[in-house]
Amino acid sequence: MQGSNQDSKFVDFDKEEFSALILEKVCFTWPSGEKALDHCSFFIPGPGLWMIVGSNGSGKSTLFRLINKMLQPDSGKIHCRLKPSLVFQNPDHQLLLPTCRSDLSLSLPSGLSFNEREKRIKKVLQQVDLQGIETRQIHTLSGGQKQRLALAGALVSDANLLLLDEPTALLDPLSQKSVLQIVQRLCKDPKRLVTALWITHRLEELKYCDGAARMENGKVGPWLSGDLLMQGLRALAGRRV
Ligand SMILES: Nc1ncnc2c1ncn2[C@@H]1O[C@H](COP(=O)(O)OP(=O)(O)OP(=O)(O)O)[C@@H](O)[C@H]1O
Ligand SMILES: [Mg+2]
Predict the structure, then answer these.
(1) Which residue, of 58, 98, 185, 217, is most buried by count of CB atoms within 10 Å of its CB?
(2) What is the pLDDT of residues 66-115, one digit of tens each?
(3) 169 membership: H or E segment, kind and range
(4) Do 7 and 62 reside in the same domain of the chain?
């Protein structure tokens, strides 16, 4: 895959005081007794595309639910100056209404005029390369188009922190690449300054990020370049074989 935007091996780690998202020793245990986050501390170094990799059950999805305020930590603090929006692995769990326009309308901020609503819908559809499909029935879209529509739903709500939970897990390589490139483009757009946190099990996607971290046993490790983390994880997998 192409699209690497990394020159340095390690991500600059000295910007915590300016970070828009900081977690301080966050703990969370589900009512079933399963500990998901265990004194988890990390921050996002700045706008960009940041990826998190970790084995099943390491706490990644729970972390996103905490950042999105769907859950409250048992202890510790989350400081977030951004407006988060979650995008799930399966867009069918997210897209609720019959047409693209009606579904996006659900996420629009209130108080906008008809013309402003139409303008915003048109703009976000352009941003995800789906221009002109306002009236299409959602069930006629391909899986990749549905995932891009789910992304448009997050953007139209004015979110500037995209929490992408394995957004390409159900997509074929072409659709995977197009979602990656769109998110990468959004994160580089100086007019929008979107920050994206992207959970993945597909190591080849690390080529696209500005930094990547490994989540293990409810904790997020340090930010590394995607290439470095990929090499480390591949070496680890090789040793396990
Ligand atoms: N709704 C829930 N109720 C009870 N326990 C849960 C719930 N969701 C997650 N857990 C538990 O919390 C822990 C972390 O799960 P989580 O889904 O956050 O991991 P994950 O890293 O996203 O895994 P995966 O890669 O499989 O998606 C696991 O032990 C899991 O069983
Ligand atoms: Mg998960």
Answers:
(1) 58
(2) 999 999 999 999 999 999 999 999 998 888 889 999 999 999 999 999 99
(3) none
(4) yes
CA angle, residues 133, 138, 141, in degrees to nearest 5:
75
Query: Whose Cα sits closest to atom 24 in ligand 1?
Result: 56
Examine the domain organization and report whether 77 and 169 are in the same domain. Answer: yes
Does residue 92 form part of some domain? no
How far, in Å, from the CA of 71 to the mean position of ligand 1? 13
Using the atom order of ligand 1, give the atom closest to the CA of residue 65: 18
Cα distance between residue 178 and residue 189, in whole Å: 16
Kindly report the protein residue whose alpha carbon is nearest to atom 18 of ligand 1: 59
Question: Same domain for 173 and 199?
Answer: yes
Residue nearest to atom 9 of ligand 1 (CA): 62
**What is the domain extent for residue 140?**
99-157
Q: Contact at 8 Å (CB) between 215 and 53?
A: yes
Into how many domains does the chain fold? Answer: 2
Tell me if 93 sits within 8 A of 143, measured CB to CB: no
Q: Are residues 107 and 11 in the same domain?
A: no
pLDDT tens digit sequence for 57-70:
999 999 999 999 99
pTM, two decimals, is: 0.91
